[in-house]
Design brief:
This protein is an alpha/beta fold. It contains eight helices and nine strands. Bound molecules: manganese (II) ion.
Length: 293
């Protein structure tokens, strides 16, 4: 493996590790639909490379350097979607069984079905999913009638036995690139949404986050980096103006940190990025998390 993520230790297995706080794991997988630009599979390598540009230290007393953080490498490249999910979900389940926090580097958002299966296979109790994303990813079939893609992935996750619509919290959702079908799905299932245009309303943000951290103990947080305004994250497949600032994202992650049991960051596309800004903001999101767990 190339250099591990900044401040972490490269390992080939985690079974023999003791007192692990968090484990970085890469998922260089992307779906192959023509409507999306190729390149998210390059992200785990690029994010690790860019991470070494940072010291990892902030004003916070705790940082990645005070924690035992391992880097478990990547899943193999070139796998079919079912084979990828099997290999990846096994890695996630292994990390969770060590009572460590997986920190996953996608890949496009379709990897999340593997994450969810890993949670299921681990036997650990997860009580909530927080989907931090410009989009809802709840299409039933998209694109072209396909059941499995980054646009349908959350719909597939909530069809799994361990998950349900009631557990899901959306943060940063916005139009105008949503399907009417997924909006109806959210409304008819009374799903909880903190829209991007609520980000001027401090009270609304506070109440939404407070609701999550008081009601839930073990949360799966999935960050699609396109939740940020494209100004802050230009290297993404489906840019959606009107998004969050970097600081707003870091602040949300810090507030949620204590209840996060599984964390992933997806959709960084180094191939269409500008000066690695999107990889940088992904690194800083991870550092923010580790400052606050
Ligand atoms: Mn997404």
């Amino acid at each position: 493996m190339a250099e591990p993520f900044c401040g972490s230790f490269a390992v080939n297995e985690v079974d023999s590790a003791v007192d692990v706080d968090a484990v970085i794991v890469g998922a260089p997988y992307e779906d192959k639909y023509e409507i999306y630009p190729v390149g998210t599979a390059l992200a785990p390598k690029k994010i690790r490379e860019i991470s070494t540009f940072f010291s990892g230290q902030s004003f916070s007393e705790q940082s990645i350097h005070q924690l035992n953080v391992l880097d478990f490498g990547d899943t193999r490249e070139g796998l079919s979607y079912p084979d990828f999910q099997n290999e990846f979900s096994e890695k996630i389940a292994t990390i969770l069984r060590k009572n460590a926090l997986p920190i996953i580097l996608g890949g496009d958002h379709s990897i999340a079905l593997g994450t969810a299966k890993g949670i299921q296979n681990s036997g650990m109790e997860f009580d909530s999913i927080v989907w931090i994303d410009a989009h809802l990813d709840l299409m039933n079939k998209y694109p072209n009638g396909n059941k499995f893609s980054r646009a349908t992935v959350l719909r597939r996750i909530i069809e799994l036995d361990n998950f349900s619509t009631k557990q899901v919290y959306f943060i940063g959702s916005r139009g105008h690139n949503l399907g009417w079908e997924e909006i109806e799905f959210v409304n008819s299932n009374k799903m909880k949404v903190l829209k991007a245009n609520s980000f001027s309303l401090e009270d609304e943000i506070e109440n939404f986050i407070k609701n999550i951290i008081t009601k839930h103990k073990n949360v799966y947080v999935s960050v699609d980096i396109d939740v940020l305004d494209p100004v802050f994250a230009p290297g993404i497949s489906v840019p959606e103006p009107g998004g969050l600032t970097s600081r707003e994202l870091f602040s949300i992650i810090e507030k949620l940190a204590k209840v996060i049991g599984c964390f992933e960051i997806v959709e960084v596309n180094p191939k269409i990025d500008i000066n690695n800004l999107t990889s940088m903001v992904a690194c800083k999101t991870i550092f923010s998390l580790l400052d606050a767990i």
